[in-house]
Design goal:
The chain is an alpha+beta fold. The chain has helices spanning 2-15, 28-34, 39-51, 80-86, 105-111, 157-165, 183-188; strands at residues 55-58, 62-65, 70-72, 91-102, 118-128, 131-140, 169-180, 196-206, 211-220, 224-226.
Length: 235
């Protein structure tokens, strides 16, 4: 199949270092001409490489070679910035919105509160080496964090909780699944609607075993690699 051969040819260029992380591929028309194929066939090849995490697409900008993914260990409570710094990457966050809202049905279910209970909702956009890679929404129980929105909630809630409320993340429950980027989430990540994504849902508990917040993370799927080490008990 021609689209397989094209995919393999581009893959070989990436593996050989001829196309490096962040490189923009030629426009689809020129790329199709270089492979003597149609744009429909070319797009099949590019879509396969995207599904494998080798390429990513930015809306109205074209195709790019994916950087090395961030190693994400679910067993740790390390915040995004520290995780990136530890791996030699540069992280930053942008606050999209922060307000007190009635809990949505999903947030109420996750936090085990009645529907329409007021909770803090904080939406942030995360960048890795100046590339937007994740949109995260936190739903937070106000009873544990009075006047939270008067503080800077742009970067690390982990640090804010510790410094201002003497509260530490002690346990986290994860659920990881795949999804697609749509609407405002896709727009914030400069992705085309329908691009593959990794969805991480976290329930967070403090040192007193109280559930204090939950967060919903939408990642560009090529931007992270979930890795952990399990120690097996003997017997």
């Amino acid at each position: 199949m021609q689209y397989i051969k094209i995919m393999e040819a581009i893959n070989e260029q990436i593996d050989a270092g001829l196309l490096t992380a962040g490189n923009k591929l030629p426009a689809e028309r020129k790329l199709a001409e270089s492979f003597n194929t149609t744009r429909i066939t070319l797009r099949e090849s590019l879509a396969l490489l995207e599904s494998e995490g080798k390429l990513y697409r930015e809306d109205r900008r074209g195709w790019f070679v994916s950087p090395e993914p961030l190693r994400y260990d679910p067993t740790l409570t390390t915040n995004f910035s520290s995780m990136a710094t530890d791996q030699g990457r540069v992280a930053r966050s942008e606050l999209l919105d922060a307000k007190l809202v009635p809990a949505s049905r999903r947030a109420a279910s996750l936090l085990s509160v009645s529907p329409f209970t007021e909770v803090y909702r904080i939406d942030r956009l995360r960048f890795l080496d100046e590339r937007p890679v994740m949109v995260v929404t936190n739903f937070i129980l106000p009873e544990y964090f009075p006047n939270l929105l008067e503080l800077d909630v742009t970067t690390s809630l982990t640090d804010t909780y510790s410094e201002h409320y003497n509260t530490l993340y002690a346990k986290t429950r994860y659920r990881v699944s795949t999804t697609s980027l749509l609407g405002e989430t896709a727009q914030a990540l400069r992705a085309t609607a329908g691009s593959p994504a990794m969805f991480i849902e976290r329930l967070n508990y403090d040192q007193h075993d109280r559930m204090i917040d939950c967060d919903l993370e939408y990642w560009r799927h090529d931007a992270l690699s979930i890795e952990s080490v399990a120690t097996l008990s003997k017997g």
